[in-house]
Amino acid sequence: xxxxxxxxxxxxxxxxxxxxxxxxxxxxxxxxxxxxxxxxxxxxxxxxxxxxxxxxxxxxxxxxxxxxxxxxxxxxxxxxxxxxxxxxxxxxxxxxxxxxxxxxxxxxxxxxxxxxxxxxxxxxxxxxxxxxxxxxxxxxxxxxxxxxxxxxxxxxxxxxxxxxxxxxxxxxxxxxxxxxxxxxxxxxxxxxxxxxxxxxxxxxxxxxxxxxxxxxxxxxxxxxxxxxxxxxxxxxxxxxxxxxxxxxxxxxxxxxxxxxxxxxxxxxxxxxxxxxxxxxxxxxxxxxxxxxxxxxxxxxxxxxxxxxxxxxxxxxxxxxxxxxxxxxxxxxxxxxxxxxxxxxxxxxxxxxxxxxxxxxxxxxxxxxxxxxxxxxxxxxxxxxxxxxxxxxxxxxxxxxxxxxxxxxxxxxxxxxxxxxxxxxxxxxxxxxxxxxxxxxxxxxxxxxxxxxxxxxxxxxxxxxxxxxxxxxxxxxxxxxxxxxxxxxxxxxxxxxxxxxxxxxxxxxxxxxxxxxxxxxxxxxxxxxxxxxxxxxxxxxxxxxxxxxxxxxxxxxxxxxxxxxxxxxxxxxxxxxxxxxxxxxxxxxxxx
Length: 591
Known about the structure:
The chain is an alpha+beta fold. Helices cover 48% and strands 18% of the residues.
């Protein structure tokens, strides 16, 4: 390609390519249509919001890198043209726009991202259901630490982050296993740093359902049985409490009567002592005075026994009353849940099958039971030492360990009934060699999959959730989410939304590029594994000549580029196959 007058040099080749893709899906137009009530001096606030997205898409560590790097993005006219802008603002202007952004405006911008995501998500959901017969979700909580001495980050707090107690934020993230793109981010919700995983399970499930618009049938029969069991336990405790109350009443009455008898006995002894003194009568063991003193001793010992028995019964009664109160709260919660789930099922014309995979931080008994009742095939680990000690004891002497990985073996128990859990679970004990010793862990499962008959598949299926861990690592290391570029709640919220959208966006664009660009660099063609780090950290910061065309551009990498000799011809036409909404088709079985 000759460097004609129409050719323009860019130092951010992939940002130009992604700008063409952004035009094809309507991202730029939709962002520019969002009303932002901010003063315009030179650049519209919408332009600065797009520039903020570019900072994340280009993997910039700091916002100032937009203007202070070796080849500033805000000076790259080819990038501006690809993104339909006359020019970019200095990073300081972007910062001011983000500082004055309201939460309502951030939510509106997030709504645009969800609108653009939905057709692709719907298509992937249908493909997954067609191929696998189910959806697979992964959820996790990750930390965003900031400086411990900072006072300018809103709602930050101390919590577990990166295996240490640090100051910052937690982010609840949910992804969907995608047949085409490998992983699609569905939801990201920031929380204060002291938020723990066990409090977020239900919210993440509901967020996933809200994004896909689909859910499995709730297991109302199981829930109804659990509710009945809780009700019977409460009634039994109430009967026990009534018995204890009766016993306490009787003991208190006996204690009161004993006090009166002791008082009467003291009066009698005083009268007898006076009488014996007047009559000069000696006191003998079986005399009236001796018998009175003996009876007083009997009454005093009885009073002591009753004095001990009353607080014991009061303690037992208080414990039962606390248990009854807990049961009443649980019964009320389960009753409301049952009513909600029955309504969910009545409204669910197109139930699906779905897996939810979570790590041990989410695996409390209540969370696992809730996921079961919500209808999911559950793959997780139990929280803390809920099950590990008892199953390690049960494994003593067993020699039927199955190798499931290079350094892992498992044994399993099918549909184990547990005294402290309402539903039977498939339980597996893992052991790993760490040096010369074994390390143990537990896997638990509920659902129709016959996991105990194929332990390597169970091990692999649970550990498939590493896809979300890889996504979190990608977000921190590629899109630089360990550097928070803003310090306002709306800005931080928008940065989280832009980061997961950028991860999805690069994969969608890789598919778009692979279809039309035979000279795409090696390894970029697979949208499920498109070398995101290389595209962002290298491709978005490499030089190319851009020849603008009517419906796109020709992008030729310069001789100084890692991809020298390659050309990408980009056309903006891009049709997304819009699936029929599930609520409007009567042939779900044909998916």
